[in-house]
Amino acid sequence: MHRLIGERSLDDSWLDEQDARAAFRDMVRTRRFDERALALQRRGWMSGYPPFTGQEASQVGAAHAMRDDDVLFPTYRSNALQIARGVPMSDILAFRRGRPEYLSDHDVPVFPQAVPIATQIPLATGAGMAANYTEEDHAILVCFGDGATSEGDFHEGLNFAGVFDAPVVFFCENNAWAISMPRERQTASDSIAVKAEAYGFEGVQVDGNDPLAVRETVTEALADAREGSPVLVESLTYRQGAHTTADDPSAYRDDDPDLPEWRVRDPLDRYEEFLRDRGVIDDAFVETVRENAEAELKDAVEWVEDLPPADPDDAFEHAYETLSPALVEQREEMRDFLTRHDPNELEY
Ligand SMILES: Cc1ncc(C[n+]2csc(CCOP(=O)(O)OP(=O)(O)O)c2C)c(N)n1
Ligand SMILES: [Mg+2]
Protein backbone atom coordinates (compact mmCIF):
# COMPACT_ATOMS: atom_id res chain seq x y z
CA MET A 1 0.00 0.00 0.00
CA HIS A 2 1.21 3.53 -0.75
CA ARG A 3 2.43 5.97 1.79
CA LEU A 4 1.16 9.12 0.18
CA ILE A 5 2.38 12.14 2.01
CA GLY A 6 3.93 15.48 1.31
CA GLU A 7 5.80 16.03 -1.90
CA ARG A 8 4.48 12.87 -3.62
CA SER A 9 0.99 14.29 -3.42
CA LEU A 10 -1.23 15.52 -6.24
CA ASP A 11 0.44 12.99 -8.47
CA ASP A 12 -0.56 13.13 -12.14
CA SER A 13 -0.80 9.37 -12.36
CA TRP A 14 -4.07 9.42 -10.40
CA LEU A 15 -5.59 12.17 -12.47
CA ASP A 16 -8.71 10.99 -14.23
CA GLU A 17 -10.16 14.25 -15.54
CA GLN A 18 -13.82 13.47 -14.99
CA ASP A 19 -13.29 12.14 -11.45
CA ALA A 20 -10.98 15.04 -10.69
CA ARG A 21 -13.65 17.54 -11.69
CA ALA A 22 -16.25 15.68 -9.63
CA ALA A 23 -13.98 15.93 -6.58
CA PHE A 24 -13.48 19.65 -7.18
CA ARG A 25 -17.24 20.15 -7.49
CA ASP A 26 -17.87 18.40 -4.16
CA MET A 27 -15.09 20.32 -2.45
CA VAL A 28 -16.67 23.60 -3.57
CA ARG A 29 -20.16 22.44 -2.58
CA THR A 30 -19.04 21.38 0.86
CA ARG A 31 -16.87 24.47 1.46
CA ARG A 32 -19.86 26.68 0.68
CA PHE A 33 -22.00 24.53 2.95
CA ASP A 34 -19.57 25.00 5.83
CA GLU A 35 -19.31 28.77 5.32
CA ARG A 36 -23.07 29.13 5.15
CA ALA A 37 -23.71 26.89 8.14
CA LEU A 38 -21.30 28.99 10.22
CA ALA A 39 -23.03 32.19 9.12
CA LEU A 40 -26.44 30.70 9.94
CA GLN A 41 -25.23 29.66 13.38
CA ARG A 42 -23.96 33.19 14.02
CA ARG A 43 -27.43 34.59 13.51
CA GLY A 44 -29.01 32.06 15.88
CA TRP A 45 -30.39 29.71 13.24
CA MET A 46 -28.91 26.71 15.08
CA SER A 47 -27.40 26.37 18.52
CA GLY A 48 -23.91 25.18 17.57
CA TYR A 49 -21.88 24.01 14.61
CA PRO A 50 -18.58 22.08 14.19
CA PRO A 51 -16.89 23.42 11.03
CA PHE A 52 -14.84 21.10 8.81
CA THR A 53 -13.10 23.70 6.61
CA GLY A 54 -9.64 22.37 5.73
CA GLN A 55 -10.84 18.76 5.70
CA GLU A 56 -12.77 18.82 2.40
CA ALA A 57 -10.14 16.96 0.37
CA SER A 58 -9.92 14.24 3.00
CA GLN A 59 -13.67 13.74 3.19
CA VAL A 60 -14.54 14.13 -0.49
CA GLY A 61 -11.68 11.79 -1.45
CA ALA A 62 -12.97 9.14 0.96
CA ALA A 63 -16.58 9.57 -0.17
CA HIS A 64 -15.61 9.11 -3.80
CA ALA A 65 -13.81 5.87 -2.95
CA MET A 66 -16.95 4.30 -1.47
CA ARG A 67 -19.26 2.04 -3.40
CA ASP A 68 -22.98 2.88 -3.32
CA ASP A 69 -23.71 0.00 -0.95
CA ASP A 70 -20.79 0.66 1.42
CA VAL A 71 -21.95 1.78 4.83
CA LEU A 72 -20.80 5.03 6.43
CA PHE A 73 -20.46 5.77 10.15
CA PRO A 74 -19.93 9.55 10.31
CA THR A 75 -19.17 11.96 13.15
CA TYR A 76 -20.23 15.54 13.82
CA ARG A 77 -17.18 16.60 11.74
CA SER A 78 -17.96 14.45 8.66
CA ASN A 79 -20.64 16.56 7.00
CA ALA A 80 -18.59 16.91 3.81
CA LEU A 81 -18.25 13.15 3.56
CA GLN A 82 -21.98 12.70 3.93
CA ILE A 83 -22.82 15.41 1.41
CA ALA A 84 -20.33 14.01 -1.10
CA ARG A 85 -21.88 10.57 -0.59
CA GLY A 86 -25.32 11.92 -1.47
CA VAL A 87 -26.96 12.92 1.81
CA PRO A 88 -28.95 16.10 1.01
CA MET A 89 -27.60 19.30 2.56
CA SER A 90 -31.11 19.96 3.89
CA ASP A 91 -31.00 16.79 6.01
CA ILE A 92 -27.84 17.92 7.72
CA LEU A 93 -29.08 21.46 8.28
CA ALA A 94 -32.38 20.15 9.65
CA PHE A 95 -30.51 17.86 12.03
CA ARG A 96 -28.52 20.81 13.37
CA ARG A 97 -31.82 22.58 13.96
CA GLY A 98 -33.05 19.83 16.24
CA ARG A 99 -34.81 17.57 13.75
CA PRO A 100 -34.20 13.83 13.60
CA GLU A 101 -31.46 12.99 11.13
CA TYR A 102 -32.11 12.08 7.53
CA LEU A 103 -35.64 13.40 7.06
CA SER A 104 -35.52 12.88 3.31
CA ASP A 105 -35.79 9.53 1.60
CA HIS A 106 -32.23 9.40 0.22
CA ASP A 107 -30.80 5.90 -0.06
CA VAL A 108 -27.25 6.41 1.23
CA PRO A 109 -26.44 3.68 3.78
CA VAL A 110 -25.40 5.92 6.66
CA PHE A 111 -25.64 5.74 10.44
CA PRO A 112 -26.36 8.74 12.69
CA GLN A 113 -23.49 11.17 13.28
CA ALA A 114 -21.60 10.10 16.41
CA VAL A 115 -21.03 12.89 18.92
CA PRO A 116 -19.80 10.78 21.86
CA ILE A 117 -16.19 10.26 20.83
CA ALA A 118 -15.29 6.81 19.41
CA THR A 119 -18.57 5.10 20.33
CA GLN A 120 -19.25 4.46 16.64
CA ILE A 121 -16.06 2.42 16.19
CA PRO A 122 -17.15 -0.87 17.83
CA LEU A 123 -20.58 -0.45 16.20
CA ALA A 124 -18.91 -0.20 12.80
CA THR A 125 -16.90 -3.32 13.50
CA GLY A 126 -20.14 -5.04 14.47
CA ALA A 127 -21.71 -3.92 11.19
CA GLY A 128 -18.71 -5.40 9.38
CA MET A 129 -19.02 -8.68 11.27
CA ALA A 130 -22.75 -8.72 10.44
CA ALA A 131 -21.91 -8.36 6.73
CA ASN A 132 -19.66 -11.40 7.06
CA TYR A 133 -22.41 -13.46 8.73
CA THR A 134 -24.99 -12.48 6.11
CA GLU A 135 -22.46 -12.94 3.30
CA GLU A 136 -23.00 -9.48 1.87
CA ASP A 137 -19.95 -7.98 0.24
CA HIS A 138 -20.28 -4.31 1.16
CA ALA A 139 -17.62 -2.69 3.32
CA ILE A 140 -17.89 -0.23 6.20
CA LEU A 141 -16.10 3.11 6.50
CA VAL A 142 -16.01 4.57 9.99
CA CYS A 143 -14.86 8.15 10.62
CA PHE A 144 -13.19 9.46 13.75
CA GLY A 145 -10.55 11.96 14.79
CA ASP A 146 -7.06 11.79 16.27
CA GLY A 147 -8.55 12.34 19.74
CA ALA A 148 -10.78 9.28 19.40
CA THR A 149 -7.73 7.01 19.28
CA SER A 150 -7.22 7.50 23.02
CA GLU A 151 -10.61 6.00 23.84
CA GLY A 152 -11.08 2.36 24.81
CA ASP A 153 -13.71 2.00 22.09
CA PHE A 154 -11.05 2.59 19.43
CA HIS A 155 -8.91 -0.29 20.69
CA GLU A 156 -11.85 -2.64 21.21
CA GLY A 157 -13.22 -1.91 17.75
CA LEU A 158 -9.91 -2.48 16.00
CA ASN A 159 -9.14 -5.56 18.03
CA PHE A 160 -12.42 -7.24 17.14
CA ALA A 161 -12.03 -6.26 13.49
CA GLY A 162 -8.59 -7.87 13.36
CA VAL A 163 -9.74 -11.08 15.03
CA PHE A 164 -12.98 -11.44 13.05
CA ASP A 165 -11.70 -10.17 9.66
CA ALA A 166 -14.37 -7.47 9.60
CA PRO A 167 -14.58 -5.58 6.28
CA VAL A 168 -13.96 -2.19 7.87
CA VAL A 169 -11.85 0.81 6.91
CA PHE A 170 -11.03 2.85 10.00
CA PHE A 171 -10.77 6.36 8.61
CA CYS A 172 -8.96 8.58 11.10
CA GLU A 173 -8.92 12.24 10.15
CA ASN A 174 -5.89 13.52 12.00
CA ASN A 175 -6.60 17.24 11.92
CA ALA A 176 -3.81 17.95 14.43
CA TRP A 177 -6.14 18.88 17.29
CA ALA A 178 -8.69 17.34 19.61
CA ILE A 179 -10.28 20.59 20.80
CA SER A 180 -7.22 22.13 22.53
CA MET A 181 -5.16 18.91 22.71
CA PRO A 182 -2.42 18.77 20.06
CA ARG A 183 -1.63 15.49 18.34
CA GLU A 184 1.82 15.19 20.05
CA ARG A 185 0.10 15.12 23.44
CA GLN A 186 -2.57 12.69 22.26
CA THR A 187 -0.22 9.75 21.76
CA ALA A 188 3.49 8.99 22.05
CA SER A 189 3.28 6.72 18.98
CA ASP A 190 5.16 7.86 15.88
CA SER A 191 1.89 7.94 14.01
CA ILE A 192 -1.70 6.88 14.40
CA ALA A 193 -1.41 4.52 11.42
CA VAL A 194 1.23 2.48 13.25
CA LYS A 195 -1.31 1.43 15.87
CA ALA A 196 -2.93 -0.95 13.36
CA GLU A 197 0.06 -3.24 13.64
CA ALA A 198 -0.96 -4.16 17.18
CA TYR A 199 -4.26 -5.49 15.85
CA GLY A 200 -2.74 -7.52 13.04
CA PHE A 201 -3.65 -5.41 10.04
CA GLU A 202 -2.30 -2.62 7.93
CA GLY A 203 -2.14 1.08 8.77
CA VAL A 204 -1.38 3.75 6.19
CA GLN A 205 -0.85 7.49 6.23
CA VAL A 206 -2.11 9.66 3.41
CA ASP A 207 -1.92 13.35 2.56
CA GLY A 208 -5.44 14.21 3.61
CA ASN A 209 -5.32 17.50 1.73
CA ASP A 210 -5.02 15.71 -1.60
CA PRO A 211 -8.39 14.31 -2.70
CA LEU A 212 -6.80 12.11 -5.38
CA ALA A 213 -4.41 10.47 -2.93
CA VAL A 214 -7.16 9.93 -0.37
CA ARG A 215 -9.43 8.45 -3.00
CA GLU A 216 -6.70 6.11 -4.21
CA THR A 217 -5.77 5.03 -0.70
CA VAL A 218 -9.32 4.49 0.54
CA THR A 219 -10.30 2.61 -2.63
CA GLU A 220 -7.46 0.17 -2.01
CA ALA A 221 -8.29 -0.03 1.67
CA LEU A 222 -11.95 -0.83 0.95
CA ALA A 223 -10.89 -3.52 -1.51
CA ASP A 224 -8.62 -5.09 1.12
CA ALA A 225 -11.38 -4.84 3.73
CA ARG A 226 -13.79 -6.68 1.44
CA GLU A 227 -11.20 -9.46 1.25
CA GLY A 228 -11.20 -9.74 5.05
CA SER A 229 -8.30 -7.41 5.88
CA PRO A 230 -9.38 -4.30 7.76
CA VAL A 231 -7.25 -1.18 7.25
CA LEU A 232 -6.55 1.88 9.39
CA VAL A 233 -6.14 4.99 7.23
CA GLU A 234 -4.63 8.07 8.88
CA SER A 235 -5.60 11.05 6.77
CA LEU A 236 -3.24 13.91 7.62
CA THR A 237 -5.20 17.12 7.43
CA TYR A 238 -5.75 20.27 9.41
CA ARG A 239 -8.67 21.86 11.21
CA GLN A 240 -8.48 25.43 9.97
CA GLY A 241 -11.27 26.80 12.11
CA ALA A 242 -12.49 26.46 15.66
CA HIS A 243 -13.44 23.09 17.15
CA THR A 244 -17.04 24.27 17.25
CA THR A 245 -18.76 27.64 17.38
CA ALA A 246 -18.41 27.42 21.19
CA ASP A 247 -14.60 27.28 20.96
CA ASP A 248 -11.95 30.01 20.70
CA PRO A 249 -8.75 28.47 19.32
CA SER A 250 -6.73 31.64 19.94
CA ALA A 251 -6.69 30.54 23.59
CA TYR A 252 -4.50 27.51 22.81
CA ARG A 253 -2.87 27.76 19.38
CA ASP A 254 -1.11 30.48 17.47
CA ASP A 255 -1.62 31.35 13.82
CA ASP A 256 1.59 29.70 12.74
CA PRO A 257 1.37 25.97 13.46
CA ASP A 258 4.50 23.87 13.36
CA LEU A 259 3.30 21.69 10.49
CA PRO A 260 4.49 21.26 6.89
CA GLU A 261 3.10 23.62 4.31
CA TRP A 262 1.10 20.94 2.46
CA ARG A 263 -0.70 20.19 5.70
CA VAL A 264 -1.87 23.69 6.57
CA ARG A 265 -2.33 25.11 3.09
CA ASP A 266 -5.98 25.41 2.06
CA PRO A 267 -6.76 22.15 0.24
CA LEU A 268 -9.29 23.77 -2.07
CA ASP A 269 -6.87 26.48 -3.27
CA ARG A 270 -4.13 23.93 -3.73
CA TYR A 271 -6.31 21.54 -5.70
CA GLU A 272 -7.83 24.31 -7.83
CA GLU A 273 -4.36 25.51 -8.78
CA PHE A 274 -3.29 21.95 -9.66
CA LEU A 275 -6.31 21.39 -11.92
CA ARG A 276 -6.06 24.82 -13.57
CA ASP A 277 -2.36 24.27 -14.31
CA ARG A 278 -3.28 21.10 -16.18
CA GLY A 279 -6.22 22.64 -18.00
CA VAL A 280 -8.70 20.29 -16.27
CA ILE A 281 -10.84 23.20 -15.09
CA ASP A 282 -11.16 26.79 -16.24
CA ASP A 283 -12.91 30.01 -15.16
CA ALA A 284 -16.21 29.04 -16.75
CA PHE A 285 -16.26 25.63 -15.04
CA VAL A 286 -15.38 27.10 -11.64
CA GLU A 287 -18.03 29.79 -12.01
CA THR A 288 -20.74 27.23 -12.88
CA VAL A 289 -19.75 24.99 -9.98
CA ARG A 290 -19.95 27.93 -7.57
CA GLU A 291 -23.31 29.08 -8.89
CA ASN A 292 -24.77 25.59 -8.67
CA ALA A 293 -23.50 25.18 -5.10
CA GLU A 294 -25.09 28.49 -4.17
CA ALA A 295 -28.43 27.50 -5.68
CA GLU A 296 -28.35 24.09 -3.99
CA LEU A 297 -27.70 25.72 -0.62
CA LYS A 298 -30.42 28.30 -1.09
CA ASP A 299 -32.95 25.54 -1.75
CA ALA A 300 -31.71 23.51 1.22
CA VAL A 301 -31.96 26.45 3.64
CA GLU A 302 -35.45 27.36 2.39
CA TRP A 303 -36.59 23.76 2.71
CA VAL A 304 -35.47 23.65 6.33
CA GLU A 305 -36.97 27.05 7.12
CA ASP A 306 -40.33 25.78 5.88
CA LEU A 307 -40.34 22.86 8.32
CA PRO A 308 -42.50 23.15 11.44
CA PRO A 309 -40.39 23.93 14.54
CA ALA A 310 -38.61 21.00 16.15
CA ASP A 311 -40.31 19.42 19.15
CA PRO A 312 -38.00 19.83 22.17
CA ASP A 313 -39.33 16.53 23.58
CA ASP A 314 -37.54 14.78 20.69
CA ALA A 315 -34.30 15.25 22.61
CA PHE A 316 -35.54 12.53 24.96
CA GLU A 317 -36.60 10.08 22.27
CA HIS A 318 -34.81 7.25 20.46
CA ALA A 319 -32.28 6.24 23.13
CA TYR A 320 -34.49 4.34 25.59
CA GLU A 321 -37.75 2.42 25.18
CA THR A 322 -38.73 3.63 28.67
CA LEU A 323 -37.22 6.80 30.10
CA SER A 324 -35.44 6.51 33.44
CA PRO A 325 -36.90 8.51 36.35
CA ALA A 326 -33.95 10.94 36.15
CA LEU A 327 -34.65 11.64 32.47
CA VAL A 328 -38.39 12.04 33.12
CA GLU A 329 -37.46 14.64 35.73
CA GLN A 330 -35.12 16.43 33.30
CA ARG A 331 -37.81 16.50 30.65
CA GLU A 332 -40.23 18.08 33.15
CA GLU A 333 -37.61 20.65 34.06
CA MET A 334 -37.08 21.47 30.37
CA ARG A 335 -40.82 21.77 29.71
CA ASP A 336 -41.18 24.06 32.70
CA PHE A 337 -38.22 26.17 31.50
CA LEU A 338 -39.81 26.50 28.07
CA THR A 339 -43.08 27.79 29.55
CA ARG A 340 -41.04 30.67 30.98
CA HIS A 341 -38.65 31.36 28.05
CA ASP A 342 -39.11 31.81 24.34
CA PRO A 343 -36.53 29.47 22.68
CA ASN A 344 -36.06 32.08 19.94
CA GLU A 345 -34.91 34.62 22.49
CA LEU A 346 -32.29 32.40 24.11
CA GLU A 347 -28.65 33.28 23.58
CA TYR A 348 -26.40 30.47 22.44
C1 LIG B 1 -16.89 10.24 25.09
C2 LIG B 1 -16.66 11.70 24.90
N1 LIG B 1 -15.73 12.34 25.64
C3 LIG B 1 -15.53 13.68 25.48
C4 LIG B 1 -16.26 14.38 24.56
C5 LIG B 1 -16.02 15.86 24.36
N2 LIG B 1 -15.38 16.07 23.07
C6 LIG B 1 -16.07 16.48 22.00
S1 LIG B 1 -15.11 16.62 20.64
C7 LIG B 1 -13.73 16.14 21.48
C8 LIG B 1 -12.40 16.07 20.79
C9 LIG B 1 -12.39 15.10 19.68
O1 LIG B 1 -11.21 15.27 18.93
P1 LIG B 1 -10.92 14.39 17.66
O2 LIG B 1 -11.25 12.97 17.93
O3 LIG B 1 -9.54 14.69 17.22
O4 LIG B 1 -11.99 14.91 16.57
P2 LIG B 1 -12.12 16.38 15.93
O5 LIG B 1 -13.08 17.14 16.80
O6 LIG B 1 -10.76 16.97 15.87
O7 LIG B 1 -12.71 16.13 14.58
C10 LIG B 1 -14.04 15.88 22.81
C11 LIG B 1 -13.05 15.45 23.82
C12 LIG B 1 -17.24 13.67 23.81
N3 LIG B 1 -17.98 14.27 22.86
N4 LIG B 1 -17.40 12.34 23.99
MG1 LIG C 1 -8.86 16.03 15.78
Can you characterise this structure?
- With 348 residues, the protein is an alpha/beta fold.
- It folds into two domains: 6-310, Rossmann fold; 313-348.
- It contains twelve helices and seven strands.
- The protein has a five-stranded parallel sheet, with helices on both faces. It has a two-stranded antiparallel ribbon with strand order 4-5.
- A hairpin with a 2-residue loop joins strand 4 and strand 5 (181-182).
- The termini are far apart.
- The structure holds thiamine diphosphate and magnesium ion (MG).
- Residues 145-147, 175, 177-178 line the site of magnesium ion.
Describe this structure in a few short sentences.
The chain is an alpha/beta fold and 348 residues long.
Helix content: 40-55%
Classify the fold: give the CATH topology of the largest domain. Rossmann fold
Give the overall pLDDT as a whole number.
Answer: 94
Total number of β-strand segments? Answer: 7
Bound molecules: thiamine diphosphate, magnesium ion
> Hey, roughly how much beta strand do the residues contain?
5-15%
Strand order of the largest sheet: 1-2-3-7-6
Number of domains: 2
CATH superfamily of the largest domain: Thiamin diphosphate (ThDP)-binding fold, Pyr/PP domains
List the total number of helices.
Answer: 12
- What CATH architecture label of the largest domain applies? 3-Layer(aba) Sandwich
The global form is globular
Largest sheet: 5 strands, parallel
**How far is the N terminus from the C terminus?**
46 Å
Rg:
20 Å
Structural class per helix/strand content? Answer: alpha/beta
Query: SSE order in H/E notation?
Result: HHEHHHEHEEEHEHEHHHH
